[in-house]
Amino acid sequence: MRKYIFKRIFIGIIVLLGVITMTFIMARAVPSDPARKWAGLRASPEQLAKVEKDLGLDKPILVQYINYIGKILKGNLGRSYRTKQPVLQEMIERIPATLEVVLSGFLLAVTIGIPLGIYSAKYKNKMFDNVSRFFSIGCVSLPAFWVALIFQLLFYAKLGWLPLGGRLNIETALFYDVPHITGMLLLDSFITGNFVIFKEAFLHLILPSITIALFPVGLIARMTRSALLEILNEDYITSMRSYGVSELKVLWKYAVKNSLGPTATVVALSFAFTMVNTFLVEIIFNWPGLGTYISIAITTLDYPVVIGIALFSAIVFVVVNFIADLVIALDPRVRL
Amino acid sequence: MYHWNKYKGLLLLTLMTFMFFTLSGMAWAAEGEVAKNILYHATGSTPFTNLDPSVEWSNGVMIMNNVYEGLTYYNYETGKVDPMLAESWSRSEDGKTWTFKIRQGVKFHDGADLDAEAVKKSIDRTIKLGQGAVYIWDSVKSIEVIDKYEVKFNLKYSAPLDVSTSAAYAAFIISPNAVEKDSDWFNLGNSAGTGPYKINKAISGEEVILEKFDDYWKPWKDNQYTYIIVKKVPESSVKRKLLEKGEAQISSDFSSTDINALMTSDKVKVIRRPLWQTLFLCLNTEKYPCNNVDFRRALSYAFPYEETVNNVLEGRAVQSYGFIPKGLWGHSENLPQYKCDLDKAKEYLDKSGVKTDGLTLELTHGTQADEYAIYSQLYQLNLKKLGINLAIRPMTWDLQWAKGNNPDPNDRQDMFLFIIWPDYPTPNTWFVQLLSSTSPFNLSYINDPTIDAKIKEASTLEAVDRDKAEQMYLDLQKEVLDKAYYVSLYDKVATYVLAKDLKGFTTNPAYSEVVRYFDLHK
Question: Which residue in the set A171, A293, A299 is minimally distant from B396, CB to CB?
Fold first, then answer.
């Protein structure tokens, strides 16, 4: 096990280095003018020359690359050319917002998707299974931004039940002490007992979480169904039934546990993907997370941010994938 | 025991649900009344890139001009500058010495008093940092404090310094206590101006909350706003819903669909205001066939001006007369104006001798507005009738810029769709940026020492003989129009959507995108 862990960490570092290098090269291959982006569109040649020197852009590419790797190792991701703020600080400010909405979405997806998959398998080819299939395919097929707009139209504009977007109402954010421990408002307000903020944060989280949950709920339901169907055909399941063990117990205590392996991998990868692809949902719901930050950085060729986000994405994928593999390895049938 | 285990989960869930609703109910009851004098301005773009008033040269103009003030303020109605932090000023005969009398009794947000020393320190700081629109102080040789409320500027050459001090950028006076601070201090949300609002909170790239400055030197009325929330809301349909529901009071930059819907709504009012933002097609005069003056005239007569303004932009623009937009001196509706006339275009095309067989021109435009592509396609249709193919390439600014700066003129685009606006209210901006041989924005690549000399002479005359300077600018515009270096398209008109009960809304094209929150009330 220890050998496996060290091997995975080593491979992870190679992957991260590869991602940084490729992104660094691609960012410089695309025509851009970072000095002018920093100094301003109408900066004078003297101002541009000074900025190029300050940012090290006048050095050879290889020197820039080595300096950049050196800075990363010290935890310095550079400054955004657009905002001039430290990239790491800006990412840290935004990650909790994205984590909150993605975690909520996935909690919802798992809570609905797994039971849905289980009962689809149990009632295979019956009405429940057919409806569940229709629902799952619908969830996976519907574009998230369209769903988000429909939700806003229905629940905000027509019914007035839920807020349009953002994390809190503007008055609440202005007049109440917003707690900041983890950056996830729902958790922080619960910990500090601030139930005014808790209620606001909860209401604001509903629509974006449901939108985020749509794709994974369909995926999880179908994966769980497929995996469970294989298990339900196993001999030991037939034996337990013939011994008179209740169907509920056979399903939940024995069959489900053994079928969760593939689902866990899919959930993990899907989570990692969603963490860095929430920009459409965040834009529609005006959610101040990583998604909008990434989308602006890409369209403005703000390449310190682009590289910082690429590094973060790679870390998330490597870590989540690793955790998923370890969880699967708890099954004694699996050898690492 | 078995029954207890069986229902244990259900009981726990019930208890948690009960606790949630009880606590939420308490939270609901605890909300109470909150102050309602909050204004929510939903903007389509980032409210600021930098909150340092000496450095910011971008979107932050809207925040800066509510938190900080300059010595003077440009009056769009009269075309002259009005007193702001300076009560009065005078200049020497030769325009190289300017003396300002500073307003007394003005406080900065940190409690410090405004005086001549604070003015000198602010402008010295801006010049020393050398960032942003610092070029507005290029003429300044030295600044002297004459007495507590009098400051003198000694210039290297004659310049309209009263106009420079009214600039939308880089002209702000900051507290002497903040002069030594760096940009990071300002970006934490600290403010050190004299403006009616100070910064309560600033979240980079997202939101700024402004709070009323009780000691502002102009008197407050009860119905003015205490808090202003300027928040980025990039999606047009979301801004529309906020306004229709009454959650936001001001917004702009809507899609055509949303604007048309809002115009029929009884909850909001739609207002159009002129901007000093002008659009040009820059013709590559260093590349065949745009190096041919008659060919350029043909291109100018082929553009669909009326269709663009009336059908594509639907009132969000007016066709340009020359370079200078309406409302700024140097503008004249007596200047020649090209109209779409394909017969005339054909006439000049024939006169140019340019063969159109296999001729394809390349036009690049930005991706930030849908209309660029639409009227480019209309232009493409017109050019096709003349036998000219037009390849339209939407590009991000960086790619357009890189192409336009290619060392080989033959690898540059033939037409570059470009927008220009001034940093301070003088026609000089257009001439320097578009015609000066040393300007990076001279994207028609004009290299004419005579024009350079005329621009320089006109700019030095601005301070001492504005009429003569204006005539020079008008003559230059006639010359440039005749040579068709640029196709002058239109002056933009901004569309704002406001809450129905919002009063006092004004804009000033000299301060593009700035809403003066102090003027607003219910």
Answer: A299
